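Progress report, Aim 2. The chain analyzed during this reporting quarter is listed below.
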Amino acid sequence: MATQATLGSHRFELLMRTHAGCACIHLIPCPGLAGLIERDDPEPSHLFDLLAGHCTRLKRLNVDVVVLGCTHYSFVRDVIERMLGPGVTVIDTAHAVAQQVRRLASTVHGCSAAQVNAAAPALRVMASDDGHGVRTMVNRWLGVPCQVETWPRV
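Predicted structure tokens for the chain:
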């Protein structure tokens, strides 16, 4: 499960060719899912309906492992796990992505990961758009204030 942009990226193609081995891979684009997770919606039925559709498709494919290929999806991992049932292992990539961001930040700024953490006591988020959705998501799901900075898409 991932965004269309992720599934269509050269980096994803390279990772899949390198690591998929003989596994049967089903690419499940989830258009709109990240946006619904970001929305501060008091009635999340649209989100649950969208998740149910994707999970039903995965169950029909009889998958045994699902990889969450978008860091937004971590916020609804428990819902995905319940919808898929106990026979499906869900792999959440968000922690690995966060570790890589920490490693890259410390490399770019020339300091250790501990120094990166100590230097930034408040949550600072980088976004490729105006950041409103990310700010809303962080406030809703994490309950902490954050500073959002934007940078141009690459």
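The mean pLDDT is 81. The first helix runs from residue 4 to 7. These observations will guide the mutagenesis work planned for the next reporting period.
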